[in-house]
Design the sequence.
C-alpha cells in the first residue's frame, strides 16, 4: 500500500470534525439530448460519527450523488464541476474529484475508507461464492490478512452483525440466506475494512418492516461502536427520523432543504419536504393521503424557475415559475431551504397552525 | 354442498348485503421440498398456509398483513387460484350461486377468471415490455372475447382516464412510464374486467412514499366507484390502515389476529401485531421505533411447537410452547361490538393473572 500524501491544493474551510465536504458538485449525463444535470450544484458536509440522510423521490439524484463520492458515476455521467474532500484520519486529506483513475488512493477509498451498502442484497452479493469468501476478500485486500486470519475475522464480523451460528453460516451461499440475513452479510462486508464513512443506499427498502427495524438498529449500534459517519439515502422520512442526525432533501439534482433532523421534521420549510412528510401513510388516518401530485419531471425537461413549482400547492404564478432557481438560504441557524416563499409560508403556518 | 360454519363479519354491512362474497374455510397449501441438496430433508413438505379461514363481504377491503414467509402471498394466490390449494374450501358467490374454487379444474375455472383479478407487486416485471399499454390493458378483454375493435379501444381509453392517464398513452410502451404510472396500468388491467374480487399483492410496496400515496388514493377512489371487494396483501401495517375495513394479521401460515381496522390499531391484542405496529418507523424523532422483535419468521418447514410465534414473543409464558392457541373472540358474547379474533394464550384465559397484554 502506498504512503498517502495530502493532495489538497487549497485550504478547505472546515472544522476538525468534518469528515467529508462536498462543494458545488455537478454530475451531468452527456446524452444525445444534451447534458442532463442529474446533480446540479450540491454542497454538504458530513461530520465524524454523525449520520446525514439524503432524502428524495426516485430520480432526484441522491444515488448519483453518492456514487460520485466514490468516483463511480455510471456512463455517460461525468463529474463536471465541484469538489469532494475526505479528511481521513488514516490517510489524510484526499480530494476525491481530482484523483486520477489509476491512483492507488482511489482503490484504497472504495470499499476501504468509504464502504457502501446497497439496496438489493441479492444483486450486491455474488451467487457463486460463499458469504464467507466474499467477506474475507475484503479483509484480505483492505487489511492484508492471510486466509486463516480472514476467516476468523469474518466469523467475528458475522457475529457482530447479529447472525446466529456464524461459524456455520460463514460457508453458506447467499441463496441460503433470507433477505434480512443477506443485508446483515452486506453490512459485515462493508465493515470489514473499518471504514470512516459508510454510504447506505436505501439499505432497507427491499425489506419487511420488522427486518428494517432490526437492520436500522444494527447500523446505529455499529456506528456507535466503530465511530464511522453514515450517509443514508432513503425516500422514507420515517427512516430519517429514526436514524439520522442531519438531513438534506433533494429534488431534481439540487438540495432544497437542509438542517438538523428534528428541525426539518417539526418545522419543514420547503413545500416538497412537507409533501413527502404528508404522503406517509399513517400521517392522516381514514381520509385521503396528501400525495404530491404528478411525478418528478424528466431531467431533459426541467421546469423554469423553481423546479418543483408545477407540483407545488403553494406555487404562485409570476414568482415561482419565473427567474432562476431559488437559492438555498438560511432561514434559521443550521436550517436552510430553497423556496422564495419560505418566510410567507412560515408566517402563514404560525398564524393558522397549518398550511392549506 | 355443506354450509360453511359462520364467521364474524364486519360491523356495518352495506345496504342489503348479508352474504359474504368469499368464504375461505380451513385453507391449506403445502409445498413439497425437493429431496437432497438444499434443505437436506427427503420428501417432506412445507406448510405455507395452514388452516386459514375468513370471510370477505361485498364492497369490503380486507388487509392480509405479515412478514415475508408468513404465507400471505400464497394464501392470496390460492384464493384467485393462481395456485391450487392442498385442502380447504374457497366458497365464492357468483351470479347468485356459490362455487368452491378450491375444487374446480382449470377448465371449469376459465369462465370465473374475469371475476377474480390480481394486481402484482413489481410494476417493472409484471408488464410485458414488448406490448403497448393499450394491448396490456385490453388483453384480458381479448382473451375472454368480451370486446373487440372500436369497443375494445373505447373501454381501454375509458380505463386510462379513470387511472389518471390519457388515451394517447395507449400506444406507448411500459418503459416510457414511471413506477407509479406502471402500477396504475397494472390496476387498469385488473379493473377492465369489472371483477367482483381484486387481490392486490403488495401493490404499493415497491413505490416511493409520494407515489405510494397517489396509488393508495387511486385504489380508494376506485373502490368506491366500482364497489370493489379487495384483499390487500402488505407487510406495512400503516399502508393497510388507510384502505382496509378489516385486517387479518398472519404469522407462519395462520391468522393470529383479525379485527376491524380501527380496533386493530387502537387495541392490538396479539404481541405479533404490536411488534409489527411498533416496527414502522415514524417521522417523529420523539417516537422511537422498536427493534425489539428479534430473530426471523418461523421456518414453515420446521414450525415451532405450540404457538409458532413463541420463540420470538416478548410475552411468552409456560403454555405457549406446548399448546397452539385457537383463533377466537375473547368476548364472543358481547354482540354489540364487532368481532376481534385473536390467537394468543394471554387472551384465552390461560394467561389470566399474568402481566403483559398492555399496548406497546
Sequence:
Amino acid at each position: 500500500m502506498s504512503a498517502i500524501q495530502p493532495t489538497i491544493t487549497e485550504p478547505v474551510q472546515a472544522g476538525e470534525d468534518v469528515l467529508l465536504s462536498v462543494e458545488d458538485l455537478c454530475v451531468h449525463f452527456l446524452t444525445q439530448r444534451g447534458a442532463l444535470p442529474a446533480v446540479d450544484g450540491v454542497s454538504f458536509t458530513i461530520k465524524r460519527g454523525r449520520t446525514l440522510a439524503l432524502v428524495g423521490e426516485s430520480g432526484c439524484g441522491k444515488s448519483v450523488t453518492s456514487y460520485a463520492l466514490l468516483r463511480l458515476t455510471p456512463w455517460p455521467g461525468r463529474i463536471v464541476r465541484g469538489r469532494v474532500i475526505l479528511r481521513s484520519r488514516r490517510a489524510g486529506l484526499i480530494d476525491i474529484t481530482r484523483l486520477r483513475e489509476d491512483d492507488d488512493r482511489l482503490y484504497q477509498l472504495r470499499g476501504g475508507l468509504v464502504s457502501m451498502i446497497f439496496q438489493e442484497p441479492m444483486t450486491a452479493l455474488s451467487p457463486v461464492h460463499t458469504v464467507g469468501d466474499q467477506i474475507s476478500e475484503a479483509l484480505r485486500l483492505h487489511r492484508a490478512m492471510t486466509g486463516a486470519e480472514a476467516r476468523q475475522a469474518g466469523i467475528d464480523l458475522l457475529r457482530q452483525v447479529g447472525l446466529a451460528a456464524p461459524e456455520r453460516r460463514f460457508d453458506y451461499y447467499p441463496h441460503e440466506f433470507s433477505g434480512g440475513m443477506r443485508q446483515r452479510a452486506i453490512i459485515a462486508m462493508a465493515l470489514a475494512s473499518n471504514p470512516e464513512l459508510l454510504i447506505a443506499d436505501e439499505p432497507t427498502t427491499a425489506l419487511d418492516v420488522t427486518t428494517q427495524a432490526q437492520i436500522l438498529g444494527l447500523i446505529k449500534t455499529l456506528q456507535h461502536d466503530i465511530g464511522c459517519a453514515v450517509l443514508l439515502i432513503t425516500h422514507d422520512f420515517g427512516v430519517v427520523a429514526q436514524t439520522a442526525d442531519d438531513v438534506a432533501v433533494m429534488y431534481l439534482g439540487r438540495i432544497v432543504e437542509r438542517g438538523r433532523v428534528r428541525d426539518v421534521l417539526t418545522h419543514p420549510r420547503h413545500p416538497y419536504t412537507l409533501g413527502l412528510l404528508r404522503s406517509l401513510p399513517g400521517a392522516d388516518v381514514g381520509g385521503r393521503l396528501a400525495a404530491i401530485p404528478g411525478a418528478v419531471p424528466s431531467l431533459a425537461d426541467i421546469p423554469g424557475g423553481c423546479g418543483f413549482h408545477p407540483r407545488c400547492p403553494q406555487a404562485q404564478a409570476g414568482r415561482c415559475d419565473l427567474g432562476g432557481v431559488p437559492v438555498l438560504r438560511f432561514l434559521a441557524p443550521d436550517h436552510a431551504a430553497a423556496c422564495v416563499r419560505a418566510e410567507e409560508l412560515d408566517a402563514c403556518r404560525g398564524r393558522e397552525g397549518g398550511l392549506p | 354442498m355443506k354450509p360453511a360454519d359462520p364467521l364474524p363479519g364486519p360491523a356495518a354491512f352495506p345496504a342489503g348485503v348479508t352474504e359474504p362474497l368469499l368464504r375461505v374455510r380451513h385453507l391449506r397449501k403445502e409445498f413439497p421440498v425437493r429431496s437432497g441438496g438444499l434443505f437436506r430433508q427427503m420428501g417432506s413438505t412445507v406448510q405455507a398456509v395452514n388452516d386459514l379461514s375468513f370471510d370477505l363481504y361485498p364492497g369490503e377491503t380486507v388487509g392480509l398483513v405479515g412478514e415475508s414467509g408468513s404465507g400471505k402471498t400464497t394464501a392470496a394466490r390460492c384464493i384467485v387460484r393462481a395456485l391450487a390449494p392442498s385442502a380447504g374450501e374457497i366458497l365464492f358467490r357468483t351470479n347468485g350461486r356459490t362455487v368452491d374454487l378450491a375444487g374446480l379444474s382449470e377448465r371449469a375455472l376459465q369462465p370465473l377468471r374475469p371475476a377474480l383479478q390480481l394486481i402484482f407487486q413489481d410494476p417493472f416485471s409484471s408488464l410485458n415490455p414488448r406490448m403497448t399499454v393499450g394491448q396490456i390493458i385490453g388483453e384480458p378483454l381479448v382473451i375472454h372475447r368480451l370486446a373487440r375493435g372500436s369497443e375494445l379501444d373505447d373501454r381501454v381509453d375509458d380505463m386510462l382516464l379513470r387511472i389518471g392517464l390519457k388515451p394517447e398513452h395507449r400506444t406507448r410502451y411500459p418503459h416510457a412510464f414511471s413506477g407509479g404510472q406502471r402500477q396504475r396500468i397494472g390496476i387498469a388491467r385488473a379493473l377492465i374486467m369489472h371483477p367482483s374480487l381484486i387481490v392486490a399483492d403488495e401493490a404499493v410496496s415497491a413505490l416511493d412514499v409520494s407515489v405510494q400515496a397517489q396509488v393508495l388514493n387511486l385504489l380508494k377512489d376506485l373502490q368506491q366507484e366500482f364497489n370493489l371487494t379487495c384483499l390487500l396483501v402488505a407487510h406495512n401495517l400503516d399502508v393497510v390502515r388507510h384502505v382496509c375495513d378489516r385486517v387479518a394479521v398472519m404469522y407462519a401460515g395462520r391468522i393470529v389476529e383479525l379485527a376491524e381496522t380501527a380496533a386493530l390499531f387502537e387495541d392490538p391484542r396479539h404481541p405479533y401485531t404490536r411488534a409489527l405496529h411498533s416496527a414502522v418507523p415514524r417521522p417523529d424523532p420523539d417516537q422511537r421505533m422498536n427493534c425489539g422483535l428479534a430473530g426471523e419468521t418461523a421456518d414453515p418447514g420446521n414450525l415451532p411447537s405450540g404457538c409458532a410465534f413463541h420463540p420470538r414473543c416478548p410475552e411468552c409464558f409456560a403454555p405457549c410452547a406446548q399448546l397452539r392457541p385457537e383463533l377466537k373472540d375473547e368476548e364472543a358474547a358481547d354482540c354489540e361490538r364487532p368481532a376481534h379474533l385473536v390467537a394468543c394464550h394471554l387472551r384465552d384465559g390461560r394467561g389470566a393473572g399474568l402481566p403483559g397484554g398492555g399496548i406497546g
